[in-house]
Amino acid sequence: MLAALGLAAPAAAQSAVRVGYSDLNLQSPNGAKVMLARLDAAAPRACGPAPKARDRARATVYGACVNETVGGAVAALGAPLVTAAYGGAVATDIAAAGGLR
To answer: Which of 38, 71, 72, 80 lies 20 to 30 Å (CA to CA) from residue 45?
Structure first.
């Protein structure tokens, strides 16, 4: 049996991407981390080509698309350890950016 999750991308996304996980144990921390890495890798493909860095408006929309795509996929998956790993990634990103303002 093939287990796959279709990334349900927001309106800014250009295509759907299937992410397989039948080889992963989502009830293990390592399996959850690998799944999150797969989702992180697939989201940019769903959102289309990245804009040039100097096009700040499009870069902002693209970044939001990627973030919403991963967040939506994590929620749809409904795997607690993947959700926890995603929450940790978000907290790390916020801390790296200097915290909430």
So the answer is: 80
